[in-house]
Amino acid sequence: MSKYRESGMPSEDIWEGYYEPEVILRQLKVDKRVDTFVDVGCGYGTFLLPASRLVSGTAIGIDIDRGMVESCRKKAIRDGHNNIIAIQGDISDDSTTSILKSYSGSIDYISLFNILHCENPASLLKVTHSLLNSDGMIGVIH
């Protein structure tokens, strides 16, 4: 399976100006009915941090960039988000998916926001779908 390349994101201040994350998340049905939320390619935490306030359980962010993951962890601590788990890894890698499989049955929402630029989007959708519980949803913004 292909590794998912970095997208060459703009600086955080520019990126943050593109979206109203909480509005978007609510429109995409991220709310207290979601127990475990997974943000693939969490980047600066633009959607991960607000999602952690909206869901009833855990918000998990995954990114291939160690700096992005550390930034998310620091923001979570700073802002008192004690339900965030930030994982440095590649969703196409078995070691990353095995971590997520430990949440088997509880993952009911996976966000694929600005990540379908990957080399093999069909494979990404297949992997993420396999991690969802039977009523789970995948939210996509591209």
**Strand adjacency order, main sheet:** 3-2-1-4-5
Record field, number of beta strands: 5
In round numbers, the mean pLDDT is 88
Measured on Cα atoms, how large is the radius of gyration?
A: 14 Å
Query: What helical percentage do the residues reach?
Result: 25-40%
CATH fold label: Rossmann fold
Explain this structure.
The chain is an alpha/beta fold. It has a single domain, classed as Rossmann fold (3-Layer(aba) Sandwich). It has six helices and five strands; from the N terminus they run H-H-E-H-E-H-E-H-E-H-E. It is globular, with a radius of gyration of 14 Å. The protein starts with 11 loop residues before the first helix and ends with a strand.
Q: Notable features of this structure?
A:
142 residues; alpha/beta; Rossmann fold; five-stranded parallel sheet; 5 strands; globular
